[in-house]
Design goal:
Five copies of one chain form a homopentamer. Chain A is mainly beta. Chain A has one helix and six strands. Chain A has one domain: OB fold (Dihydrolipoamide Acetyltransferase, E2P). The interface between D and E is medium-sized, with 26 and 22 residues.
Chain lengths: ~80, ~80, ~80, ~80, ~80
């Protein structure tokens, strides 16, 4: 799992139907790289979160059928990068 | 999931039969690295898209039998890298 | 599998219910990058451990339903990085 | 999926029986890193190919029992890196 | 799959019971990074080997229940990095 900060919601012109309708967030890592994750929790811009990758990400999104490889797993308290 | 820009269609001299016949696109990431993804949506050169990796990529391509580890999941609106 | 040093326990304001209640630890690699892992062993700050990633991480946490992509697999004796 | 150039066949002193007997090729990426892939197609030194990783790589090799995490999926025509 | 050189056996103070009792080896890649792999073959310090990652690594270790994400798959003959 990795630590990321929430940067913004991602506005999608189109998405595959099986992705479901969870919000999709743009995240930045401590080293500055950008990723995109499904958000079943409802995190806000600036929150520090940890993310779950690959097969566990699909269950974390709430349904194994969801098409995701990265999902927000929780909010971190008092994180100082 | 990652954010990529569509660079071109990939012309294949031969491919494994189980790959199916979806278009295959060359993508570049914000940091400049190159990847190849199946495209079930029909994205165009220059579009900003997000991509789904690994086991979810196969379902995203429309059929778990498809041989892919990266699939275009949607088009991003108003993205400024 | 990778070698990591335990840095601290991660305090979570919220987490997905299916993550279970194992402690979650912040780890650093030899090259200085930061990861987060479930800890079924009870490792302490400063311990050198090895970690198991992806699908095996879920079984390593004790239950395939646990939502993790990285789990502490053991403590390393006499490691000098 | 990634784009690689075929460098040489890999001569193996011993291999696990469940790997099967497909040729194994050494590949280099555009950025110069080295990988090893199973080759069900019969690619030649200097060919540009694309490769399929992880679980799809096993099916791409022709049998889910094959022990591989990277398989050559096709030959690319007219590639200029 | 990747090419690695065997550096040393890893001495474990404790390990999860489901890891089984195969030797665990510290490996270095051509670019100098360090990984840890299960060794069902019995490779020696200094050997050049190739390694299999993720789900195939578990079968390569001899049993899908083994908790590993990297397993030695074979010894390479006459490798000059």
């Amino acid at each position: 799992m990795e630590i990321h900060q929430v940067k913004q919601e991602l506005i999608l012109t189109s998405r595959l139907p099986d992705m479901g309708y969870l919000p999709v967030k743009v995240l930045t890592s401590v080293s500055g790289s950008t990723s995109v994750a499904m958000d079943p929790i409802g995190v806000k811009e600036g929150d520090w979160v940890f993310t779950i990758a690959n097969s566990a990400a699909r269950d974390a999104a709430g349904d194994k059928r969801y098409l995701t490889d990265l999902t927000v797993g929780g909010i971190i308290d008092n994180w100082r990068p």
